[in-house]
């Protein structure tokens, strides 16, 4: 297999501290220096939402971006988005990712003793281990894909994914310093962790952290998979689960903290339909069950809705309607795999070319409307 350039992957043909991002390291440069968007018109950062087996739809959308000549700089993701991001930043083309994800037998991810396949056994495993399936097969599968299909000579750690900005005068820090950012929910600390940025708090260094281990933690769907347990920097246990529990769609993670116009866009890929008009009611509460569901939805979705409900986030997000498939539907039929793939391709095509609901994607128009520092719809300064 021919080697791929790790600093650029061509696609379909920690929080976010105020100090993260761009800093000047060259003479006469300031962090506010903005480059015209036309210099690198096809560069893009990506934020990929999680959704279990729905990741096939992400691959379909990524394949369209690849065909259109987009070059991916950095990827952030949770759960299925973390898997797709890990494959992509390892140098695996989206067209090959489609093949990998469509041919994978996801039923093997439901690993564990035979008795966990019975209803009493599932309950016992939850009581004993806080989850049904071990998740070892998933972790090993990710590591195998990176080793077999990724760029040769890799170590499987985030040291392989150090990001080099195309402008040599720019110094990158925090979440901007690596090509892959994986979100996990740290139940012990009650925090959303951005890996590898927060690796030090979890007892390791960013460059020593194995990508497959970070992805395994991010895919720990509560109760379905057993949580991942690491020793933190103080030697105490940290219990890590699916990043989607706190933020399934950190669409602003790569935004410039200095408020200046971006040099290239960030596209979000979200595994749900475009939000309808806001009538002030998201969850209809008719009894205790719907009340409990509304509480869970509010707790887990509040952070992301602060971003995705904003016009500037909607304008740069590819919405893929995957409601027909459950995230843990690991016994997908071939027809359902094809449906997810086609949904992803169609959503990306409609986003780029426009449809009856939206104009074709235009980065310069987006920047003028939302990121120029003037007008009522400009992003607030962070």
TrEMBL record:
Motif (GXSXG): 77-81
GO annotation, biological process: lipid catabolic process
Alphabetically ordered keywords of this record: Hydrolase, Lipid degradation, Lipid metabolism
SUPFAM superfamilies referenced in this protein's UniProt entry, alphabetically: FabD/lysophospholipase-like
Short sequence motif DGA/G: positions: 242-244
Database matches in Pfam families: Patatin
UniProt cross-references to InterPro entries, sorted A to Z: Acyl_Trfase/lysoPLipase (IPR016035), Lipid_Hydrolase (IPR052580), PNPLA_dom (IPR002641)
Region (Disordered): 1-38
GO MF term list: hydrolase activity
Stretches with biased composition (Basic and acidic residues): 1-18
Motif (GXGXXG): 50-55
PROSITE patterns in UniProt: PNPLA
Domain PNPLA: 46-255
Residues the record marks as active site: 79 (nucleophile), 242 (proton acceptor)
Domain of life: Bacteria
Protein name: Esterase
């Amino acid at each position: 297999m021919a080697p791929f350039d790790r600093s650029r992957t061509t696609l379909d043909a920690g929080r976010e501290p105020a100090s993260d991002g761009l800093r000047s390291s060259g003479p006469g440069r300031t962090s506010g220096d903005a480059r015209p968007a036309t210099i690198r018109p096809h560069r893009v950062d990506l934020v990929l939402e999680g959704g279990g087996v729905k990741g096939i739809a992400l691959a379909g959308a990524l394949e369209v971006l690849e065909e259109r000549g987009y070059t991916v700089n950095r990827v952030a993701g949770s759960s299925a988005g973390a898997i797709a991001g890990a494959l992509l930043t390892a140098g695996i083309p989206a067209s090959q990712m489609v093949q990998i994800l469509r041919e994978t037998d996801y039923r093997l991810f439901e690993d564990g003793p035979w008795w966990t396949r019975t209803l009493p056994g599932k309950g016992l495993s939850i009581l004993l281990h806080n989850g049904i399936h071990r998740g070892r097969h998933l972790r090993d599968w990710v590591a195998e894909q990176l080793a077999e299909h990724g760029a040769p000579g890799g170590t499987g750690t985030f040291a392989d994914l150090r990001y080099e900005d195309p402008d040599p005068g720019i110094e990158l820090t925090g979440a901007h310093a690596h090509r892959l950012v994986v979100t996990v929910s740290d139940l012990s600390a009650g925090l959303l962790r951005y890996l590898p940025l927060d690796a030090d708090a979890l007892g390791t260094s960013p460059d020593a952290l194995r990508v497959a281990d970070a992805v395994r933690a991010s895919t720990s769907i509560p109760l379905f998979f057993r949580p991942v347990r690491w020793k933190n920097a103080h030697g105490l246990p940290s219990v890590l689960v699916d990043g989607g529990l706190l933020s399934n769609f950190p669409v602003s993670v790569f935004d410039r903290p200095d408020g200046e116009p971006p040099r290239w866009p960030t596209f979000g890929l979200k595994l749900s339909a475009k939000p309808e008009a806001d009538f002030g009611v998201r969850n209809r509460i008719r009894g205790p069950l719907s009340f409990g569901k509304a509480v869970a939805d509010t707790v887990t979705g509040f952070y992301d809705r602060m971003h995705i409900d904003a016009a500037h986030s909607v304008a740069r997000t590819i919405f893929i309607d995957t409601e027909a498939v459950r995230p843990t539907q690991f016994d997908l039929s071939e027809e359902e795999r094809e449906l997810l793939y086609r949904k992803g391709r169609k959503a990306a095509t409609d986003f780029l070319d426009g449809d009856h609901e939206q104009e074709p994607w235009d980065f310069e128009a987006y920047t003028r409307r939302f990121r120029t520092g003037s007008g009522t719809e400009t992003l607030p300064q962070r």
